[in-house]
Every structure is written in C-alpha cells, then in structure tokens.
Amino acid sequence: MNRDWLEKDFYKVLGVSQNASIDEIKKNYKKLARENHPDLNPGDPEAEKKFKDISEASSILTDEQKRQEYDQVRAMGPSAFSGQGGGFNAEDLGDIFGNLGDIFGFGGAGRRKGQSYQTNLTISFVESASGLETNVPLRKEVACSDCRGNGSENGTAYHTCNICGGSGQTASNQGFFSFAQPCQACRGQGSVIDKQCKTCKAQGVVIKSETIKVKIPAGVDNGTVIRLRGYGGTGDNGAPDGDLLVQIAVEPHKYFKRSGSDLVLEVPLLFTEAALGATIKIPTLEKQISLKIPSGTPSGKTFKIKGEGITPQGRRSGDLYVKVYLNPPQNLSRSAKKHLESFRDQFESGDTPRDYLYE
Ligand SMILES: [Zn+2]
Ligand SMILES: [Zn+2]
Questions:
Q1: 50 CA to middle of ligand 1, Å?
Q2: Ligand nearest to the backbone CA of 146
Q3: Annotation: CATH topology of 256-350
Q4: Is residue 310 left, alpha or beta, with left meaning phi > 0 and alpha meaning psi from -120 to 50?
Q5: 209 CA to centre of ligand 1 in angstroms
Q6: How far, in Å, CA of 158 to CA of 156, rounded?
Q7: How confident is the model at residue 32 (pLDDT cuts 50, 70, 90)?
Q8: Which ligand has the shortest distance to the CA of 155?
Q9: Rounded to the nearest whole angstrom, what is the distance from the C-alpha of residue 104 to the centroid of ligand 1?
Q10: What is the rounded CA–CA span in Å between residue 278 and residue 297?
Q11: Residues carrying CATH 2.60.260.20, the chain
C-alpha cells in the first residue's frame, strides 16, 4: 500500500458496487478467479495479471477493517498521505503496511516488501517554518555479507529442499482449484540450511547503524509524517525495501502560535498606547516590523499583517494576526500615580463603561 490505493478501484476490478455485501464480493471474486486462473490460462500474462488484481482486491474488500481503511484512503485522496489535514499518523501507516505484507497474489509467496520503520524527529518552531536538512539515525536491516544473505555458513552450507524440489511452493486443493502455498519444510525458501551462518544466525540479515540526511520542507506542521522510500527493512527475494516514516514533532514557540499557515501573536499595550495611538515594534519569525496602533484601540483587537505567516513549501504564505491586550503599568511611581488619579478625576462623571450590563 499505499498510494496505489488511490489509483486502484478494487470495486471496479471485482465488478461490484461500493456498497456490495461481503457475500456479493466473494461470489464475484470466485467467478472471476475461475475465469482467470493461471492453471486454465497457461502462458497468458494478461490473465495472470487479472488474477493477481482480483486476488488483491478481494483480500482488501472481504476484510472489514481493510475495506474501511481502503474506503477512507479513497475518500481522503492524496491528503491521506501528506500527514497534514489529519490523515493517518505514522502508527496507522505502519499498521496498514504490516497488514498488506500478508497479502500475496498468485506466485507471490515469499516475496514481500520490506518492513517499514518509524522514527521520531523533534525540531524547533522556527526550523519547522523555514525547513531544514538534518541527520536522522537509522538502524537498517541489510543482507549479511558473510553468507550473501542466504543464512548458511559461507553462503554454501545448504541443500535444495526435497519437499518442494526448490520451488518454495506446494500445491493445496481448495474448493474449485489448487492454490500455490509456501512450502512448510523450507518456509518458501526452496532450500534448507545445513550449517547456520554465525554472523547473522541464519537470518540472512544484520542490523547496520547509519545516519541519513533528511530534508524537511518549509512549513511542516506537528505530526507530519515524511516517507523515505527504501530506507526500511530489506524486501524478501528481490521485493522492494520498506520505507522509513519520520514523524515530525514541532516544539511550541514561546510567543507564536500556529493556525494552518497563519501565525498568531499576542502583544501587550500600555493603556496610553491604546488610548493615544502609537507605532510599536513587533517581531515576525524572521525580523522586526512596525505596527500602527490607532488611538482608542480596545483590548482584544486583532491586526492582520499580510504574508508574515508561515510559507509552506510550494504554497502561498499565511498571515500574521497580532492580538493586542491592555497591560496596566505595574509598580507606579508616586508622581505617575498622582497623574493617573487626576486623569481619572477629569473623566469621572458617574457613568462607567459597564452600565450596559445592567440595563
Ligand atoms: Zn521446500
Ligand atoms: Zn549470514
């Protein structure tokens, strides 16, 4: 899986409607499987492909949970994979990968895409806005060089499986036709190890630690998952390697908050600035700018500064919203206090700005 799901219409492949019952789906699958079974169409690559496609479609649509995930992915479109817009988190992706590893079409036994790995990466708010290139530690399974990946001592201490004759598959009859199944005796490998490779304990793979450079695009949000294709576990028997899913955690900023591509900043005003008006300096993520506060600005008023938000890679910039609030002066000097008292007395008329609450 994967993105393939966006392109593949499993319902169409099986010729059923999107709200078909499981029984209906199974019925159509059996019919199509009989028509296209490779045993009945030897040497016909088109039938073989069709058979693989309907097997894949059926394995998803007859499993209630997988069908739900598939429907979800199809409904959400590409955003299901971007990590933004609340798609799947890394864990969900891992699950889906795990489940799909179990699916095999005709002749696909033992050829699995490598496992997907997950790792977390914490970056600062400013880094998330500007993007960065950083190193991520990676522990990757690689083929054991001592046995060239086959798990036997020196890569030679093995013999061909005499149960399956080396094909790795045995036939089993199920209902209408026979299925190829991975050979139990050799676990689908086609060969049996006589003496184990000591380096990898017959696993054929060893863990290798390395760091890889990861490019984080500008504007990534908290929770974004970046997929690095091919940096996961080694695929079996030539299947593609798995992916590395890097889940980004963004540290909160001391002052800025993020809302989509917009930034929100709360700024205190002296009440003289609010009453008389002022030009104040405010920070953006990268510089300082001036903001004109008109006289009589109430607490809570928000000013929009166009284009000073976050600029996600390939998209337009968000805006900066500056919300002001009144911050009464602390620790007044005696003379300042006198001035304020005379100011109050000049305005005292018996009315208060709260009178409307009691009307
Ligand atoms: Zn065998
Ligand atoms: Zn080995």
A1: 27
A2: 2
A3: HSP40/DNAj peptide-binding domain (2.60.260)
A4: beta
A5: 33
A6: 6
A7: confident
A8: 2
A9: 18
A10: 10
A11: 114-142+201-252, 256-350
Can you tell me the distance from the alpha carbon of 103 to that of 169, in angstroms, rounded to the nearest whole number? 16
Mean pLDDT of the chain: 83
Kind and range of the H or E run holding 180: strand 177-182
**Quick one: tokens of 57?**
């479609």
Closest CA to 273 of 335, 332, 325, 339: 325
Give the pLDDT confidence score for residue 230 in this predicted structure: 86
- Homologous superfamily of the 114-142+201-252 domain (CATH): Urease metallochaperone UreE, N-terminal domain (2.60.260.20)
Report the greatest alpha carbon distance in the chain. Answer: 106
d(Cα 78, Cα 166) in Å, to the nearest integer? Answer: 42
Query: How remote is the CA of residue 160 from the centroid of ligand 1, in Å?
Result: 8
Give the integer Cα–Cα distance in Å for 310 and 286. 11
Return the DSSP state at 1: -
pTM of the model: 0.54
Query: In which residue are the tokens 């002052």 written?
Result: 255
CA atoms within 13 A on the CB side of 159: 3
Query: How does pLDDT run across 83-134, given as a tens digit for each residue?
Result: 433 333 333 333 333 333 333 333 344 567 888 888 899 999 999 999 999 9
Tell me the residue type at 224: T
The model's pLDDT over 66-87, given as tens digits with 9 standing for 90+, comes to 888 888 777 777 665 554 333 3
**CATH T-level assignment (fold) for domain 1-109:** Helix Hairpins (1.10.287)
